[in-house]
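Good day; I would like, with your permission, to put a structural problem before you. What I wish to show you is a protein chain and, alongside it, a tokenised description of its three-dimensional fold. Please examine both parts with care and let me know of anything in them that strikes you as inconsistent. Thank you for your consideration; the sequence and its tokens are set out here:

***
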Amino acid sequence: MRKILAFLFLGAVLASCGSDYTTDKDEALELKKEQTEELKSYYEEALEIETDFVADEKEILADYGGKEENLIKKAQTKDEDALDALEDLRNLELDKSAALRELDLERVDFDNALRRSISDIKKINDEKDIKSWLKAIEAEDKIQRDLREAHVKKISKLRKD
């Protein structure tokens, strides 16, 4: 729970940082590389939030055979412990969602400015003049896709365990 609150605070600080729009190809490529590096940290933080959530969820559900449906059945009998556990579980889910949303918000302005920069650079330059630049941007896009796929696999594995 403390980690989630720390992420929310960190997100508020980082979200206040500005965005960088540019029509300079070299600068945009550097920003794209910076974005790739920041994605690594983003996915690490998101995985940590998910990992903490799963651990806390298992702890809450331990008395109910590890299954939410068992907790719900027990809560239907108006059992106070089950109702409290259900409240804890839902609050945990809300905290996780808030932490992940805050983590996403940290990137929004930067990502939008970079996306607009790349789009405008493509529009204001001849394709032949930016051929190698486009290949470099595509290479960064591939790295970012690979990072995302690896993250999704880790999250899937975490949820299966």
About this structure: Residues 80-124 form the longest helix (45 residues). Residues 7-17 have pLDDT under 50 and may be disordered. The chain has one domain: 41-160. Helices lie at 2-15, 25-61, 68-76, 80-124, 131-160.
